[in-house]
Amino acid sequence: MGSRSGNPLRTLWAIPPVAVLSLLFLYPLLLVVQQSFQPDSGGTSLQPYADVFASAAFREALWTTVWLAAAATAGCLVLGFVLASVIAFVPFPGGKAVARFIDVFLSFPSFLITLALLFIYGTVGMANGVWTDVSGAAEGPFQFLNTPWGVLLAEVTYFTPFVMRPLLAAFSQLDSAQVEVASSLGARPGRIVRQVILPEALPALAAGGSLVLVMCLNEFGIVLFTGAKGVTTLPMLVYGKAILESDYPGACVVAVVNVLVSVGLYGLYRVVSRRVGAQP
């Protein structure tokens, strides 16, 4: 009886956050969806969707967005797991400082990391400068930053700490005696990682990977600052249609598709990671 009488009070407490969420997120999203059905000619029509879906630029942007996000997420998961395992289980001087730096790294804007890569691997960056000074060539060999591979490198570099942070938290809860016992029984490092460390890391990998996937699907600054030619993602296409072409219905259509793709791939990733994590 006590729990029943408390239900109305809990409902009242839920009203303010739901109202704020509706005002700040759901209402603007509803306006975007509404605009996507209103062509410049007036009225309500599916013509904006037909025009966007018939565009080769949209199909290319959709494919580029999906494969870049999937590849970056896979790279972050692998690299993040390796680096977090080294920091957590391989003692070396400065390990704690590195772990603290990861927390600071998470606050960096994405374009800052991209600029750092440009200073190193850009056309006039340090790596190409050293190459030209040594070899006397007119230009250096590092010309990949303005390609999809440069975008992929920048995304993996920037988003890997978002995987490492939950992994380090999970490893801090792991009893080190399990690793020591497995090692004393003659288990090789690969087997220890596979049978002791990896099962404990799966929930953290799922959390970090899902976050990275959603962020990569909606990343704008990295693609913009690399200046990658021919690399157009859905967020870049929204920018181009809204700002450069003044095609607001088309931009809203792409934005709606971007939201649906993000939610769909996020849901698929969570289902797959949950099933993988449930396996013994």
TrEMBL record:
It comes from the Bacteria. GO terms for biological process: 2-aminoethylphosphonate transport; transmembrane transport. The chain crosses the membrane at residues 12-33, 66-92, 104-124, 144-164, 201-228, 248-269. Pfam families: BPD_transp_1. Keywords: Cell inner membrane, Cell membrane, Membrane, Transmembrane, Transmembrane helix, Transport. Residues 62-269 form the ABC transmembrane type-1 domain. Its main location: membrane. It is found in: Cell inner membrane; Cell membrane. Gene3D superfamilies: MetI-like. It is a multi-pass membrane protein. SUPFAM superfamilies: MetI-like. InterPro entries: AminoethylPonate_ABC_perm-PhnU (IPR017636), MetI-like (IPR000515), MetI-like_sf (IPR035906). GO terms for cellular component: plasma membrane. Belongs to the binding-protein-dependent transport system permease family. NCBIfam families: PhnU, PRK15050.1. This is 2-aminoethylphosphonate ABC transporter permease subunit.
